[in-house]
């Protein structure tokens, strides 16, 4: 920390911080989407982001992405199949 109370990270430190922040955002969004109130989602995301393995996190991201793709595909089909007036 410098005299102005700013943290200066090394390149490695920055990569670690970015990885943790990505996890935090992902888990916060997923928990809120699941119906958890935002305040609780933030607290829980802070806990999860530090303990989950890289493998588990990557698989969860992939599963969430597949879910989004499936939802978009279903909505697209629904729009195409809707009779025009």
Describe the structure.
The chain has 85 residues and is mostly helical. The chain has 3 helices and no strands. The chain has helices at residues 11-33, 38-51, 54-81. GO terms for molecular function: protein dimerization activity; transition metal ion binding.
Question: Features of this protein?
Answer:
mainly alpha, Diphtheria Toxin Repressor, domain 2, protein dimerization activity, Manganese transport regulator MntR, 85 residues, DtxR_MntR_Metal-Reg, 3 helices
Question: Which SSEs are present, and which pair or pack?
Answer:
Layout: H1 11-33, H2 38-51, H3 54-81
Helix pairs in contact: 1-2
Total helices: the number is 3
Largest sheet: none
Task: Give me the secondary-structure category.
Answer: mainly alpha
Can you tell me the number of structural domains?
Answer: 1
C-alpha Rg, in Å? Answer: 19 Å
Distance between the ends: 65 Å
Percent strand equals: under 5%
- Fraction of residues in helix: over 70%
CATH class designation: Mainly Alpha
Number of strands: 0
User: What is the third-level CATH name, the topology?
Assistant: Diphtheria Toxin Repressor, domain 2
Contiguous uncertain segments of 5+ residues: none
* CATH arch. level architecture: Orthogonal Bundle
InterPro entries: DtxR_MntR_Metal-Reg, Fe_dep_repressor, Fe_dep_repressor_sf
Pfam family, one: Fe_dep_repr_C
GO molecular function: protein dimerization activity; transition metal ion binding
Domain Iron dependent repressor metal binding and dimerisation: 10-62
